[in-house]
Amino acid sequence: MILFLGFQRYTLISRSDNEASDIEEYAGLFWKRPILAAIFSITQLSLAGIPVTAGFMGKFYLLTAGVGIGNWLLDFTLVVSSVIGLYYYLRFIFAMMRADGKKFPIDDHPPHLSLTGLLILSLLGVAVIWLGVFPAWLISLVSSLM
User: Fold this and answer.
1) Which parts of the chain sit beneath pLDDT 50?
2) Cα 63 to Cα 50: distance, rounded to the nearest angstrom
3) N or C: which end of the chain has fewer CB within 10 A?
4) Taking CA 125 as the corner, what is the angle to CA 107 and CA 46, rounded to the nearest 5 degrees?
5) Distance (Å, whole) CA 146 – CA 140
6) Using CB atoms within 10 A of its CB, is residue 34 exposed (0-12), middle (13-18) or buried (19+)?
7) Where do the H-state alpha helices sit in the chain?
8) Given CA atoms 53, 51, 139, 134 in this order, what sign does their dihedral have?
9) Cβ count near 136 (within 10 Å)
10) Is position 5 within any domain?
11) What is the sign, positive or negative, of the torsion defined by CA atoms of 58, 59, 65, 69?
């Protein structure tokens, strides 16, 4: 999400003159912006394929499809890449939980997260969990389109 304040472009973490590209720049985010860190954590867990997230359901159905057609290379690749990805996603979450973080680029000129932005991010976080817990309606919708 990009916010424009004056002539400076801001994202929720970075600024146009200082991009938060290093994982260390996210250290301590949970202690400074807990809602934002929680939503980022939910999306990272979904990408990792942790149960009760939409990402898990996606990986589960890919694995099931691979077994159904006997494509064991697909299944092996999915499992290996998921394990490798889990390492990187959990590193990101652990970095956000550390209390000894560097100064954020956002600390100098913090953008105001509007109520609308907070609402949209919260709805997206809830949707990731909702689709992981109750995927049946989406699966039936996709099945009806085929």
Assistant:
1) 1-10, 106, 109
2) 14
3) C
4) 100
5) 10
6) exposed
7) 29-32, 34-48, 54-69, 72-97, 115-133, 136-145
8) negative
9) 7
10) no
11) positive
| Residue-level length of the chain | 146
Q: Token pair of 128, please?
A: 């990731």
Domain span at residue 86 reads 23-105
Tokens of 109: 């000129």
Query: What is the per-residue pLDDT for 17?
Result: 60
Q: Evaluate whether residue 139 is within a structural domain.
A: no
In a domain, 116, yes or no: no
pLDDT confidence of residue 116: 80
Confidence at residue 50, expressed as pLDDT on a 0 to 100 scale: 92
- C-alpha distances out from residue 143 to 45, 58, 65, 140, Å: 26, 14, 14, 5
Which amino acid, one-letter code, is at 35? I
Question: How many distinct structural domains can be found in the chain?
Answer: 1
Domain membership of residue 122 (yes or no) is no
